[in-house]
Amino acid sequence: MKKKGLKIMAIFSLCVAVLGLSIAYAALSTTLNLNGTAQIKGSSWDVHFAALSEPIIVGGAIIKTPTILTGTDINFAVDFTKPGDSITYIFDVINKGTLPAKIGTITTKVPIITGKEVDKNLVGNNLKYELTYNDGNIVVVGDTLLPKETRKLKIKTYFDEKVTGFPIENVTYNGLGTTIIYVQS
To answer: How many CB atoms neighbour CB 79 within 10 A?
Structure first.
């Protein structure tokens, strides 16, 4: 009977120990609840040109009225009369949307030049244009435009002042331009 009593006592002690550990675990545990809600708001994409300045004319350049078409195209025309003539426009590129934008690509168009061959070559080699920010920094792929941000850009078109001679006959230079494609940043 002593052996049987010892067994019962051991089983009872084991049960008390398990019960004590359960109570200790319950006392030392905590339940954490995370509650919340989420809402996905619509976003908008609106990158466009605005506020085209009056032209800055150097020399005898003659302009035709420039326009901004649908916010994404700027059209201008100019006639140069001698080397050193230039025309410069300052304009805004605006991110009116809620998404950040960056320049994904910049493509320079290949113009079509018409006129006598010797004059076409003279113009083709010496008619230049530059696209920069108003502070003089060059516009490059990867430049960012944050939501609600406006940046001033400048486009300058000029006939190189170092040219000796000038076309004898009229030369037409069509399709001068640059395409900037903004993508989501």
So the answer is: 13
